[in-house]
Specification:
This protein is of the alpha/beta class. It has a single domain, classed as 3-Layer(aba) Sandwich (Rossmann fold), CATH 3.40.50.720. The protein has ten helices and eight strands. Helix 4 runs parallel beside helix 5, helix 4 crosses helix 10 and helix 6 packs across helix 7. The longest helix is centred in the last third of the chain and has 20 residues. The model has no long low-confidence stretch (mean pLDDT about 95).
Amino acid sequence: MTDDQLLRYSRHILLEEIGVEGQERLMAARALVIGAGGLGSPVALYLGTAGVGHITLVDHDTVDLTNLQRQIAHNMARVGEAKALSAQQAIAAINPEPKVRAVTARADAQLLHELVADADVVIDCCDNFTTRHAVNAACVKHGKPLVSGAAIRFDGQISVYDTRDEKSPCYACVFPPSQELEETRCATMGVFAPLVGIIGAMQAAEALKLLSGAGPSLAGRLQMLDGRSMAWSEVRVPRNPACPVCAERPSSRT
């Protein structure tokens, strides 16, 4: 680690739970971020500022004026530009050290198979159940921890799905693919701007903890935020032995 890096990351290095070794783990780590919008913006920026060595951003969409109310990685100058490329520039403006790959494509099963296999942690910041289930399936297949967040209106939620732990559920254990859930979008339902920042920052925190080894993750716990009253609730979520996605997947740790 260079003198400049020791200075840049000094506030992390001062933390007993991270230290030099944890920071070096972050600098060698590979993170995959699905979505560069409301949740993906703070995730991408915090991973970048923390010095995560390799960050892959996946988003097929472009920056729109309506995004700027909450998607803090983008600005007026980049309206019309691909969100993944815009977020890549935002990271570089704060910290040029991470190697950031921008993928301007939909996160389909084939692409996820390639990208998830190479990641140490996957952060799902997308806005639809189809993609979330595709991301989860790829994470289960490759044994990668998944940090999943969602936010709509004033309601947010976050959890970690890590099937390397035999007690931890996957996303499909909690939200079965066969379950009929109403698809809600910010474009029609609205979203409280700071809410995506709160949930996205927590996703970044969980990813950094997983990568650095700083403390236990949210695996097995689903946290939900009511942004109107700023009240949190938490439920324990066990692994479903009959889950169609992870039931046949053996754990790799006890």
